[in-house]
Amino acid sequence: MRSFFLLLCLLLSPSLVAEDIKVSSPFGKLYTSIFGEKDVSEKAVVPFYFNEDKRPSGTVLVYFSYGDDDVSRFAVAPVVEAADLRAHRSAIESLSSVADNDGIVSVEDADDTGFVVVFDNANALLRITIDTMLREVVAHDVQPYNNPSIIIPTIEPADLSAYINVNAGTGYAFDSSDSVTSRSRQPFTVAFDGTINLRDWIFDGEGDYYESGDVHWARGPMLLSRDIPDKLLRFSFGDITFPTKGFQKTITIGGIAVTKNFELQPSFIGYPIFNEEVFLEHPSIVEIFINDQLYETYYLSAGTHNFYDLPAKTGSNDVIFKITDNIGREKIIPVPFLYTRNALSPKISQHSTAIGTEPVITDGRYRYPGSLWLVSHFYRHGISDTFTLGEYIQARKGQGLFGFEGIVAMKYGALTFDTAASHIFGKTSGGAVSLSFKNFLSNASDSVPQTSWNASTTFYSRRFARITVDDPDKTTRFSCSASAGRPLFYGISGKAGVDYKFLRGAAKDTYSISLNASRKLRSNISTSLQFNFMLNDSEQYDRRCLFTLIWSFPNKNQYITFHRNFNSDVSRTSWRYNSPKSVNAINSTLNYNHSTADDKDEGTISGSVHYTMRRAVLRGSYRNTVSLSDTSLMTGISQMSIGTALVFADGVFSVGKPISGSFAVISRDKSLWGHSVGVDPTYDNDYNAIAGIFPGVISSIPDYQMRTVSIDMSSLPVGTDIGASSYILSPRHSSGFLIPIHRYASALIKGTLVDGVGEVISFQSGYFVDVDAGDEGSPIQFFTDKSGRFVVMGVKPGTYEIQFISEDLAPTMITVPEGVTGKYYIGALTINAVEE
Q1: Distance, CA of 389 to CA of 278 (rounded, Å)
Q2: Average pLDDT in the chain
Q3: Predicted pLDDT at 601
Q4: pTM of structure
Q5: CB 659 within 8 A of CB 736
Q6: In this model, does residue 733 exceed pLDDT 90?
Q7: Alpha-carbon span 766 to 805, nearest angstrom
């Protein structure tokens, strides 16, 4: 039957209408047996498959030898087009070069170029096998980043958005001593910070109001910035705090900066990743083991395959490829891999350059004297997977700093180095060198307990000066430190550390020694005991012993912590509660300190409460210190503040909690007023239900991280259709989003279908077609049960034509009145039969 079907397809295909058409011998024999005469065709169109593919790559015109079942020639164009992603460009060009003027290639010539062509007589298809050495490398991202489903609408940031956070607070203090009590209200303060985003041009600003003092209003830093995510660049102009490396110093300046920021592309990988090519001579099963654990299994065709971005832990990782080919032969390929996030991948660079002047702030006003100019720059580059090198410069009037830094990953650990030279014009010069080493632990699952350790040393010349130090006199010549830790016995982990400073002049060297032991008593109880011994430059010894116990109650979201300092005779007990809710949530802490140090006996009670609402955050704190030996001595202070935000996105205003990062405004049309729409519902509350007069606000969305927003329609009337129930947000820097929610339909139609004599119409299917919507409307399918009843959801007021799949039932018209919401019963609806 299959051969007969293929024959009909070939006979009816327009592509086969040609002179002297001939099908291969199997077709010819079938043709002769059916029609009683010989076929006179010599070519046909058949599907072709590459290598071990299960699906065809297209169709190709083939020519058969007279009196033979095999293909002798074929059209090269469709094969070349489909082979573009499967073979090297040189191999494809070789195949094209052996074609004649009509674009036809013989099977023998194709074989010579590495394309082995075999015709499958039984299935009437062409199998083309590309030589494994000529196949294109197949890339496998072992841990690909999750991409959003295309069926979920993606919302782009608003062209114009803005917000302003307002945090206002005051306090009350009292002091009681010697029968004298004083009470006072703390000054009222308000802090403002906000952002305006106009098509990804970002303006940030801060300001403060103080009730007390001569200056009531003061501005804070202001900044204009623009991101170019494709280039990983951020341009900033205004009050800048720039990133630093090595011995550079972080300073706020008024100026301009250009920074390469990897965070602008969350999927960008700047650190070295595992990358290995494996050649398969035959179709094989490839199993990847990482640190003795099976991570992934692939079923691959022959050829070269590239595996990259395997998950790895800091240090040495044992990666093993186990290859089993199609005849059962096994091959093991071990590939050790060193991993550290502080390094950069080869040819990947990271840099920052800032130039400006240091501000002088007087009475809340900013001045930028030209004499306080400053330049800061660093550049890092990945030389190889194990070596990253960088340079940095920092200079201001009369002073400069220059240095090199880098990291080298070795089998046993990572070596970090940093060397810098400073110069103060007309005064002095100096230098500094820093080396540190951190060992790599084996990540094998069956490895014995190991010791983790690190060591560092830094040399300073006497006149070495970081920026802003005008008259250097470095007393520290060498600073050395080392620490080591490992599991001990009975579940106890131990750690020891030492820090030693070699000082110049008459000052005595200083050092400190620390010992720490910790153990988990149960899954929710952990303890630690720490000893510290120190000697300062005045030859004074200091000994400390600290005991800590942490008892957590995860199911109740509560934590209890106890600290005891045996040297200062101070004990502290803390209780903390974190609400699982994000709206109408109460987070609180309570602390009690008891101290008998310095011949005093004092107790201090302190606590704080945060109440998070949909539109604001309330904060309160209290601290009271009482002398237990003389209760008349008492001091205390209480504070209360409130934080809220006014937001705007594409013409829609709202009020929400203080904004951090990006935000989204969820608005609803007037037809949904009076109904609560849930946003990101959880098990017992909505993250931010849209209720009241203001649209909903999602206050904190991390920049450059996709966020899925879910809309809960369970509280809306039955039959209400508001479109998509999920949206994906793609925030950039300080983006604002507007998600409008409209009511597209509002009724659920229920009824019964009967024929002309009153008999129910059972088990029929059809469609409600919106007549008013025309071609833009989507038909709503329905079914009737045994009793002829049907239900149609998502219907809006208007005129509908009921059309049936059965040709025996005639279409009929119904009207859903205006104002209908929820369930709407139309009762028994008579359907007439089609007149013959």
Answers
A1: 30
A2: 83
A3: 78
A4: 0.71
A5: no
A6: yes
A7: 5
State the average pLDDT over residues 131-140. Answer: 80
**What pLDDT is stored for residue 718 in this prediction?**
66
- Measured between alpha carbons, how far is 575 from 588 in angstroms, rounded to an integer? 8
Per-residue pLDDT at 337 exceeds 70: no
Taking each helix axis as running N to C, give the angle between helix 2-12 and helix 25-35, from 0 to 180 degrees, rounded to the nearest 10.
Answer: 90
Three-state helix/strand/coil letters over 576-613? EECCCCCCCEEEEEEEEEEECHHHCCEEEEEEEEEEEC
* Torsion from C-alpha of 516, 522, 524, 525, nearest 10 degrees: -40
- Topology of domain 745-830, CATH: Immunoglobulin-like (2.60.40)
Whole-number pLDDT of residue 247: 92
CATH topology of 275-339 equal to that of 745-830?
Answer: yes
CB count in 10 Å sphere of residue 792: 24
| DSSP 3-state of 405 | strand
Q: Bigger pLDDT: 142 or 360?
A: 360
With contact defined as beta carbons under 8 Å apart, do 724 and 702 qualify?
Answer: no
pLDDT at 37: 46
Up-side HSE of residue 340: CA atoms within 13 Å toward CB? 27
Among 3.40.50.720, 3.20.20.450, 2.60.40.3110, 3.40.980.10, name the CATH number for the domain at 275-339.
2.60.40.3110
Positive or negative: CA dihedral 235, 239, 243, 244: positive
- Distance CA(405)–CA(378), nearest Å, equals 10
What does the alpha-carbon distance between residue 60 and residue 56 come to, in Å, rounded to a whole number? 11
Rounded (5°) CA angle 610-612-617: 80
Do 480 and 436 contact (CB within 8 A), yes or no?
no
Q: How far apart are CA 182 and CA 635, in angstroms?
A: 10
Q: Give the SS3 label for residue 61.
A: strand
Q: Which alpha helices (DSSP H) does 380-480 contain, by range?
A: none
Answer whether 669's CB lies under 8 Å from 742's CB.
yes
Pairing of strands 707-712, 154-155: unpaired
186 against 342, higher pLDDT:
186
Q: Which residue type does 202 have?
A: I
- Answer left, alpha or beta for residue 774, where phi above 0 means left and psi between -120 and 50 means alpha: left
- Which residues does 389 contact at the CB level (< 8 Å), separation at least 6? 380, 381, 383, 404, 405, 406
**pLDDT reported for residue 312:** 60
Q: pLDDT (tens digit, 9 = 90+) per residue, 46-80? A: 889 888 787 888 888 888 776 566 778 899 999 99
CATH class name, domain 153-200+579-743:
mainly beta
Torsion over CA: 681, 685, 687, 693 (sign): positive
- Tell me: the pLDDT tens digits for 399-409? 999 999 999 98
Q: Residues of the chain with pLDDT > 90: what percent?
A: 30
DSSP conformation letters of 251-298: -EEEEEEEEE-GGGSTT---S---EEEEEESS-EEEEEEETTEEEEEE
pLDDT, mean of residues 194-210: 95
Contact 782, 765 (CB under 8 A): yes
Q: Say what the pLDDT of residue 274 is.
A: 64
Tens digit of each residue's pLDDT (9 = 90 or more) over 274-295? 667 788 877 888 888 877 777 7
Helix (H) or strand (E) holding 234: strand 233-241
Considering 29-43, 145-159, 164-178, the range whose residues carry the highest mean pLDDT is 164-178
**Per-domain boundaries in the chain:** 2-136, 153-200+579-743, 275-339, 491-567, 745-830
Topology of domain 2-136, per CATH?
Ubiquitin-like (UB roll) (3.10.20)
Tokens of 50: 């590459």
Max Cα–Cα distance, the chain, nearest Å: 127
Tell me the per-residue pLDDT of 221-272, one tens digit each, with 9 for 90 and over.
Answer: 999 999 999 899 999 999 998 999 999 998 899 999 999 988 887 766 666 6
